[in-house]
Amino acid sequence: MQFLTPGEKSNIKGRPYRLAIILAIILFLVIAPEVQEGNSMDPAVKDGQVLLANKFARYSAKRKAPERDTIVIIDKKVSLDAGADDNIITRVIAVPGDTVEIKGGKVFVNNKEYTTRNGEYGATGKFKKRKLKGNQVFVLSDNRESAKFEKLDSRNPDLGLVDMRKIRGNAVMRIWPLSEFTFNMSDK
User: Fold this and answer.
1) Considering Cα of 122, then 125, then 129, then 131, what sign does the dihedral take?
2) Which of these, 137, 142, 124, lies nearest to 45 by C-alpha position?
3) Of the residues 9, 125, 158, 169, which has the maximum number of CB atoms within 10 A of its CB?
4) What pTM value is reported for the model?
5) CATH code, residues 33-187
6) Rounded to whole angstroms, how far apart are CA atoms 50 and 69?
7) Helical (H) or strand (E) element with 131
8) How far is CA 168 from CA 51, 61, 71, 108, 138, in A?
9) How confident is the prediction along the chain (188 residues), in pLDDT tens digits per residue?
10) C-alpha torsion 41→45→46→52, nearest 10
11) Where along the chain do its domains lie?
12) Is the separation of the CB atoms in 51 and 30 below 8 Å?
């Protein structure tokens, strides 16, 4: 600790501001807020809730694949092509090497009926049985009983199987509303 003698000026005045700016830049580079628009991810993520996404969670066949049940954010460029207005917040259901199929209102991954950790199962529509290759993942919204949300997941032919390299990051925590603050989104 440094003590000042009478008449000496402290050089600490600007340090807290510099530290705050450096922390803000680091946080901006590492995490990004994402606002859920609509009810496609009910009940895990509701309309208007704000998530923080880990931007360092980059996926590819060379690096790693996201785990099943991970809530991810699909890049806006891909989302716009699929008819969405912004990034898509969705859940990974199947990863490279898996087979996936939707028939009879049920989702099958590797020939077994699939249920997420939070108890979501089934889906409207159909998806012909396919084996995922290299960089492909299959994503579904949690609110699967409404056909209007099919455009926000792999049931939409314009989105289809998502290239892992188009995932912007994965949701790590819910920060708004404060009453529903959640630190570990992988359990949702």
Assistant:
1) negative
2) 142
3) 169
4) 0.80
5) 2.10.109.10
6) 19
7) strand 127-131
8) 13, 15, 11, 26, 15
9) 555 556 555 555 667 788 888 888 877 788 888 888 888 888 888 999 999 888 877 787 677 888 999 999 988 777 667 667 788 899 999 999 999 999 999 999 999 999 888 788 888 888 999 999 989 999 998 888 776 777 788 988 888 899 998 898 889 889 888 888 888 776 55
10) -120
11) 33-187
12) no
Q: Can you read off the two tokens belonging to residue 107? A: 């989702």
Q: How many CB atoms lie within 10 A of CB 134?
A: 12
Is-contact 153 90, C-beta < 8 A?
Answer: yes
Distance, in Å, from the CA atom of 98 to the CA atom of 85, rounded to the nearest integer, reads 29
Q: How far apart are the C-alpha atoms of 153 and 100, rounded to whole Å?
A: 13
Dig out the tokens for 32 from the structure: 């990004």
Q: What is the DSSP string of 162-173?
A: EEGGGEEEEEEE
Q: Which two structure tokens, joined as six digits, stand for 138?
A: 């299959």
Residue type, 108: F
